[in-house]
Amino acid sequence: MTDKIKRAVKRLPFAMNADRAYSLKRRVLHLLFPNRCPICSCIIGCDDRFCGECRSKLNSFEGSFNIPETDSFTAAFVYDKEVSPAVILMKNGVCGNAPYALGGELAERLISDGIPDNIDIIVPVPMYRADVWSRSYNQAELIAKEVGRMLGKPCVTGAVVKIRKTADQKRLDHIKRRYNLKGAFAVTDTGAVSGRRILLIDDVCTTGSTLAEIAALLKANGTASVHCAACCKTPLAAKK
Fold it and tell me: What is the pTM of this model?
């Protein structure tokens, strides 16, 4: 039944506004699989991102964070116990409403920061292919596509790939994180990134090592600029 509904939505007249078609698709799917808050799992409206109570507890990311080789960094929320259930849900292979919710919030923050005027395309941080097969999706790609839909910018997947398995970054210190990622990524389509102003998106940013590594790779392949964004940023160290 779900597949039939999806095919029916795709056959809608091309003249229909893309946003209206997307909204209709969500409404139809909501009838079969009610939309749920990605944090507490309570049923919410088909176009809602979070329930009111959970949204009120989320902490916006404030302050600045500099990442080598990048031109800017934007995050929607501080990564803490209030938002972590939504992120963990995606990492555990149950995306649900999380990419829509987190991607939508990130898109609004990017608009507020004036980033859309300075980018041409969006590139998600890639996962190693075996990890994608295991999870069935790359959460950064799902988030990037939602951001692209809201900003009206194309999401380019496959131009940058992860070519080898790396150790879990969260188990490493700052220095080991950098060496862990050396040579882990590759540009497969120079023409897609050369001369472009790119928005590089990930779900969570901790030290920025992954974003810095990919940004350096992109600039070595002719990218004009690399603006980075993540749905969540771990708390900044307190200034001494």
Answer: 0.86
